[in-house]
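Handout, section 4.2: multi-component inputs.
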Amino acid sequence: MNEKVAIKTYLSQCAELIEATLKQSLPSSWDIPEQLRKAMLYSLEAGGKRLRPALVLSAAEAVQGNAAVINAAMPVACAVEFIHTYSLVHDDLPAMDNDDYRRGKLTNHKVFGEAMAILAGDALLTHAFHLIPQAARQGGIGAEIALAIVEDLAKLAGAPGMVGGQVADMLGEQGITSILELEYIHLHKTSDLIAFSVTAGGRIGGATEKQLDLLARYGRNIGLAFQIQDDILDLIGDEKKLGKKTNSDLEQNKVTYPFLIGIEESKAQVERLTQEAKSSILEADFKEPGRLLEIADYLVQRDH
Amino acid sequence: MNEKVAIKTYLSQCAELIEATLKQSLPSSWDIPEQLRKAMLYSLEAGGKRLRPALVLSAAEAVQGNAAVINAAMPVACAVEFIHTYSLVHDDLPAMDNDDYRRGKLTNHKVFGEAMAILAGDALLTHAFHLIPQAARQGGIGAEIALAIVEDLAKLAGAPGMVGGQVADMLGEQGITSILELEYIHLHKTSDLIAFSVTAGGRIGGATEKQLDLLARYGRNIGLAFQIQDDILDLIGDEKKLGKKTNSDLEQNKVTYPFLIGIEESKAQVERLTQEAKSSILEADFKEPGRLLEIADYLVQRDH
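Output:
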């Protein structure tokens, strides 16, 4: 990737690369019922920041110090976006958040029906695990590294990770009283997949165990900062830039960081988490730490 | 496993071994919301024939000719049961088949609620991919074989496999007119996961590419025979032995093999598929083909 461009441009370039690859990541030679393929692609192509796959690419590049590693990392970057997309499709279901719109588009089940949305989510989740072995088959990474990435993903996206966070969120609705409970939810619902993204990139780039630990810490911290920033933007953000209504958390009586500790303390918390995240990167002594440091800052400064 | 016992006893012994391992396959050290753990275990422990995991073990033993391979194959056998279980939990949902009972027990969503059943299914599916790398970490199989098994499972359980079959079934309800359409549904909805089970066992046992192809053919054929036999039992079976009402397909206007081609021709078809399956095994020249041959016969002769 171009070293000179600003972080926002860098992330857009990553997103473009990822979107071009996502489009092709369901083999056209596969005999898949047409409606299922459409339902899967509908949500895959529904946009978003593509932050998680960009973190896979950025972490791989940071560790290896060479942009060529991006090709090897691409199937894994796509895998994490498949997981993220399935989680949104299932979250939006009537039995869950019952949302009609996401990013200004009708949600999957509003277009394809509830049964198809459940199955399209299942298929997206399953296909993530088809993409990771591809990275090994293309020769970019060894089988042992690919297998470690499969194991990480299954843990961090599964019961002790993202799904567990989603369950805690659902069970805790309106009953959350402590910042610790809220932190548990965000750490698992949001941070685990972000931590997976950077450690997977790190593994592809050849990180040591210590570097992987530091990447995981960076991931957890920016994930939490990202989530608190989301809560803040819901209160004081610009509806046009956000592409969604503000104050929705208040209307739904959702317990958030600003609700529990106030806006100023929430902002300070975002700042602290960002600094900690950056310290981990500096401590890890990567060849090209620049983008990971910039991303940590960008997530705090963003307005959407 | 004991060489002398009859196939029914052998399969019961496999099921016992598998159930003992399934109980422990969600690490107790993992911090998982209690309700989620309960919901996952509820359906995992709800019984069933455990046919798919038994096929993983039997195929591994057939190829390697030594019962010791069963230990190496066990995590993969459990993985396939996690996948099968998730598919039943999601199939039973109100938006899908809307079933209140399965194997005489309340379905997952009737006990834990719809949202939890969706998430428990997601977590079961994801955890299957955590179990396969374990087989490699325990040293029973190499990373490359484990990765090939991950890739197979993601394909055969995903959009071009089991989920695709489920979608075709859902879209085709009452509109199916040809045996080819029905075959497509069963091949993907049922046979793909059975074909996965035997090829995964074969990979663990050290099968050649040709042997893997023959195992896949065996799996597809017994899977299809199994499904047609299910349709036949629904018409002429004994409710007590089946543990469910007969004639449910007729009541639901479900298009089945007996509906399209009659009971006698359906029975003949089961017989033909069973013979073809057995021919594949004989052609493959395995060290211990006995159990796989017996299983093919057993599936036709069973009354539940």
